[in-house]
Design goal:
heterodimer, A: about 260 residues, alpha/beta, 5-stranded parallel beta sheet, 3-stranded parallel beta sheet, 9 helices, about 15% strand, B: about 70 residues, mainly beta, 5-stranded mixed beta sheet, 1 helix, about 40% strand
């Protein structure tokens, strides 16, 4: 499994927003051993130059960056943001978000496909933030995406996997495509569940950044993702409705009234 | 000659003739930034040739925390 030719040793990707301080962000990234972090672009003031220090910090961590187009609601905004991100971050990776609805931050799948087609056409390696919709997923692949990132639940909600049925169907439908559950993860157990379904990686931010101890939580997520992956590789048993004794019945001593 | 533009959504006056000069004038020298002029991406290499006129909208963005 690789993401546009890159094989990370950690299947956990982390966002860099909402940490109490840059030092805590650095500690969380180091504690988790992640190799891919998401970043963004915002207006820079020539007086404050706030982005410069942040960029130095990220560079010092030696991780690969995945710039996003967060907050973009139109194809044009998303494409322009991606072009600016490619120049600033010197990478052709882009986490493509085209938001369609503000209460759920649900992606606008129509705009997403259109933006993805434009960007892959100009050489971008697109990581589309999408839903579990199989038709949209197929269109994104046709548009040149080689990775899909369905949501687990709405961004920042921490609800975990809202639609396990659909996520399982997506995994089964696209066996060879790298799939990342992006957004909605609240607990390490949610991340483990995504990996147990056979997802290739998990991307999250708030659950770590807003934890009381982000570095400790980041490490917990790293362990959960590794455990979930190992479980998937180990081919889990199927659940069943009836009990079945795990201890052999044959050879049981005849005792009491039976 | 003074040109009146919008810089990151705020009205701004500048003596700069080009986008490259504007960045120097407004304190961005040496900063890692990307630029857009009137909504379209303007690559670094084209800033020196990008003349500014009254009413132009300039966006200057830099790395920021993201999820």
């Amino acid at each position: 499994m690789d993401f546009y030719g890159f094989e990370p040793s950690s299947r956990l990707f982390l966002g860099t927003a909402q940490y109490p301080s840059p030092a805590v962000l650095g500690a969380a990234i180091r504690a988790s051993g992640v190799e891919v972090v998401t970043v963004s672009l915002r207006r820079e003031s020539g007086a404050a130059r706030a982005g410069q220090g942040f960029w130095e910090l990220v560079r010092s961590l030696g991780v690969r960056v995945l710039p996003n187009t967060a907050g973009c609601h139109s194809v044009r905004e998303a494409v322009t943001t991606a072009e600016m991100a490619r120049e600033v971050f010197e990478t052709d990776w882009i986490k493509l978000e085209v938001i369609g609805e503000d209460d759920t931050l649900q992606p606008d799948l129509f705009g997403l496909v259109e933006a993805a087609r434009t960007l892959t056409g100009s050489g971008f390696k697109v990581f589309p933030y999408t839903t579990e919709d199989l038709v949209a997923a197929e269109r994104l692949l046709q548009a040149g995406c080689e990775v899909l990132m369905p949501w687990g639940a709405p961004i920042g909600s921490g609800r975990g996997l809202n639609n396990v049925f659909a996520l399982r169907a997506m995994r089964a439908h696209f066996p060879g495509v790298p799939l990342v559950v992006d957004a909605g993860i609240g607990l390490p157990s949610h991340a483990a569940a995504a990996m147990e379904l056979g997802y290739d990686a998990v991307l999250l931010n708030t659950a770590v950044a807003r934890a009381g101890d982000p570095a400790k939580m980041a490490a917990a997520f790293a362990q959960a993702v590794a455990a979930g992956r190992a479980a998937w590789e180990a081919d889990p048993m199927e659940p069943r409705d009836m009990a079945r004794p795990s201890t052999p019945v044959i050879g049981r001593a005849l005792l009491g009234d039976a | 000659m003074t040109v009146r533009i919008e810089l990151n959504g705020e009205p701004a006056a500048t003596e700069a003739a080009t986008l490259a000069e504007l960045l120097d004038e407004k304190g961005y020298d040496g900063a890692v930034v990307a630029t857009a002029l009137n909504g379209a991406f303007l690559p670094k290499g084209l800033r020196a040739a990008a003349a500014l006129s009254d009413g132009d909208a300039v966006e200057v963005v830099a790395p920021m925390q993201g999820g």
